[in-house]
Write a structure and sequence with these properties.
5 helices
Length: 70
Amino acid sequence: MLAVCLAMLEDADDREALTEIYYNYRNLMFYSAICVLKNQHDAEDCLSEAFIRISKNLDEILQLPIEKRE
């Protein structure tokens, strides 16, 4: 999943930022999705879609103040 999202980005700094976001939040996001959806496959799909959307909107996300990103 991460490889697909990274392939969408051209800038090395953006790829590094997305990698950091992925490793910092993937477990929490997956746990939250499991709690809501009650299905591992649906949670994985949800997580994939979330990271695709994050990669598409990374410029806007990185412009947020750090305390709003957490």
